[in-house]
Amino acid sequence: MFKRLRNSVAHKSDKAWDSFIKLVSEPPFSLTANQRKGVTPGRFLVTQQWEGKVVLHHALDTLENAALTLVP
Fold it and tell me: Origin, by domain of life (predicted)?
């Protein structure tokens, strides 16, 4: 999931865009067609909630926790 989010930000290819749209259309986000209108990867990261946090904060917290587990 993080790789798909990263690719949607880093690449402007059709493949990256299609993967991003599929990601936001499926659980845990499940955005409808109307909710996806005008959405960009950047807007998505800072406006949508994931487990009670903004998606960007949730992703960064998850990566930080993983790094602290690997390198105490």
Answer: Bacteria
